[in-house]
Design a protein that fits this description.
The relative contact order is 0.21. Helix 1 runs parallel beside helix 6 and helix 1 packs parallel to helix 10. About 30% of the residues lie in helices and about 20% in strands. The strands form four sheets. The chain has a seven-stranded mixed beta sheet with strand order 8-7-13-14-15-12-16. A five-stranded parallel beta sheet has the order 10-2-1-11-17. It contains ten helices and 17 strands. Bound molecules: uridine-5'-diphosphate (UDP). Uridine-5'-diphosphate binds next to helix 5.
């Protein structure tokens, strides 16, 4: 463990990565930290709030569904809140009808008007897939190789253009690898062993992670580089380009925003419906009460999701990682490696598209590696 001059650690960002780092330091290294966040609340983009007009728990910055196949990570989050099992059964509304996602046997049979069994569907999809693509160089090639042009154009082309603001040919193949293709009727969006949502919302979970005598939380407190001298080390979960005052240029992010509407009853009968067509500007509609099926509400709140390029005034969400971004990122990575006293963590700090389970695992690892403690298994 590094030696300390009795100065605490500063953790910038009270989202999931910052909270886990602070907790690990407190619990396993006996190190105190101050966690700051420029927002007026903790939990970053997982922030949830029970709306006064409906009583429904809303995922204010977009729905987050926790999923992992790592039992330790599942047990970790369950220490800090009660999680209810949840199956996300996403639907896609297209001009040809409503289909089930991720693409599964039902989707294939419905889309092509067939009655294929799993073996026949595999043979059929192989016959429509583009076999000339051996190593997909981008999102589009990955899709054409996996499912062929018809399914790609129906479900991915428009959605991806709207979501990312560019051609799928410019995007990495890894984005599509997030979604499986199934040759059975399993329509669970996530293939992980543990999928759930916290009963009291993510904000309560993060508050509980941060609830330790060695952790001091200050919300509504923006980062300022002059703070660094008062701390032994900084774990920074803001954007890496912001830390360096954008001196090497800005990294590209997409941001998302929502049109919120409250009505009576059940708006769409499902938590998420995607709209892959270019006939509408939005990408999907979330109906928040369906993310808490253990609750009953007469009214309902729906968020229609739009995506746009991130301007300096917007919150960055999805790292685009286009070729030009990766060149800029490399410069920041070199500067980060040459900087002492700061470690970059989380989605914005590492400029990667990370799910919550990965954020937790990486935050545990970075704390453990830095302080040299053994994490209990
Ligand atoms: N995607 C798509 N159509 C869909 C759902 C997803 O084209 O109906 C693509 C899109 O490019 C998206 C990516 O697959 O960004 C990953 O989807 P995921 O549902 O994992 O996105 P998230 O929920 O993280 O925004």
């Amino acid at each position: 463990m590094p030696s300390f001059n009795h100065k605490p650690i500063l953790v910038v960002g009270a989202g999931l990565s910052g909270a886990v780092v602070a907790r690990e330091l407190a619990e396993h290294a006996g190190v105190s930290s101050v966690v700051i966040d420029s927002r007026h609340h903790v939990a970053g983009n997982c922030h949830s709030l029970r709306a006064v007009d409906t009583g429904i728990l809303e995922h204010v910055y977009g729905p987050h569904i926790f999923h992992t196949s790592n039992r330790e990570t599942w047990e970790y989050v369950n220490r800090f809140g009660t999680f209810h099992p949840f199956v996300n059964r996403v639907k896609a509304s297209t001009e040809r009808g409503i289909f089930s996602l991720p693409i599964n046997l039902h989707t294939i049979n419905q889309f092509y008007g067939k009655h294929l069994n799993p073996t026949e569907a595999k043979v059929f999809l192989a016959s429509v897939a583009d076999t000339s693509i051996t190593t997909p160089a981008n999102f589009e090639e990955q899709a054409l190789k996996m499912i062929g042009r018809d399914l790609y154009e129906a479900f991915f082309l428009g959605y991806t253009q709207k979501q990312w603001g560019c051609s799928p040919r410019e995007l990495p193949a890894s984005i599509l690898s997030r979604l499986p293709v199934r040759f059975n009727y399993d329509d669970n969006y996530y293939a992980d062993s543990f999928v759930g949502l916290p009963e009291a919302g993510y904000t309560r979970v993060i508050e509980n992670i941060l609830d330790h005598p060695l952790i001091c939380v200050r919300v509504s407190t923006p980062w300022d580089s002059s703070m660094q001298r008062d701390f032994e080390h900084v774990f920074f979960s803001g954007s890496i380009d912001a830390f360096f005052d954008y001196e090497e240029g800005r990294l590209g992010y997409r941001t998302v925003y929502w049109d919120r509407k409250v009505t009576d009853g059940d708006y769409q009968g499902n938590a998420v419906i995607n709209y892959p067509g270019m006939d509408v500007a939005y990408t999907r509609i979330h109906e928040h009460k369906h993310f808490a099926p253990w609750e009953t509400h007469e009214r309902t709140v729906v968020y229609t999701e739009f995506s746009k390029e991130t301007t300096p005034a917007d919150t960055p969400y999805y790292p685009k990682r286009l070729k030009a971004d990766m060149t800029v990122l490399e410069k920041y990575r070199q500067r980060a490696a040459a900087s002492s006293g700061v470690t970059f963590i989380g989605r914005l700090g590492s400029y990667r598209y990370l799910d919550m389970n990965v954020v937790i695992e990486e935050a545990q690892k970075v704390s453990r590696d830095f302080f040299g403690f053994t994490h209990p298994t």
